[in-house]
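Worked example 2:
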Amino acid sequence: MPESEDFSFSADQFSGIVRLFPLPNLVLFPHVMQPLHIFEPRYRDLFREAVAGDRLIAMALLAPGWEADYEGRPPLHPVACLGRIAAYHGLPDGSYNLLLSGLERVEIVRELPPLKTFREAEVSLRDDFYPDVPPEAADQLRRKFQEAFTKILPALVKTHGQVDPLTETGMSLGVLTDIISYMLDISLADKAALLTENNVHRRAEVLLDHLARAAADTSPGAAGKLEFPPTFSEN
């Protein structure tokens, strides 16, 4: 699938330093668009610096126990998703609504000293990789995955207008698994594990288990929830 401008990324132009935007209830994935509402003063500062610079923000998931130190520097899951501000709108109260395009997995190497109101970190890129397997094995996994998610596709999207892009034969398995990982109504811990997994085949195999459970559950909305556009996530 051709890369749109919103999702394009050049590692050569990446400094390796990111602004961290931690949330307790959201796991962003590459290749998806996430609306955000920015209202805390520290994250307004983060947003303004990002817009004036490279427009990059790393979405991180707060680790369990974050409630005791939310205003400080509670622990984070070690793998985050680097995103780019694709569009934004300032509101009269000084807050912002924005759309963040998920770009790349990043692993937090170390946090920088707290010299700003928001957190920053040095990160390393975690590129997707495909194991060296016979082509027929890779094709079989792709077909098996396509069949599994097609079974629950009506529960994942609201209208048939969103079905076609997910069934494009040109979409790579890595992109497809990221989009499905984001869409599926599974636990945050499961989503964090899928974000951490950059072996595409292994990610697809883990998702096959989730898809099988979703297909077996016939209760309304059990397979997954997706709204277009998704609802805003607040800091």
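The longest helix spans residues 135-151. The chain is about 30% helix and 25% strand.
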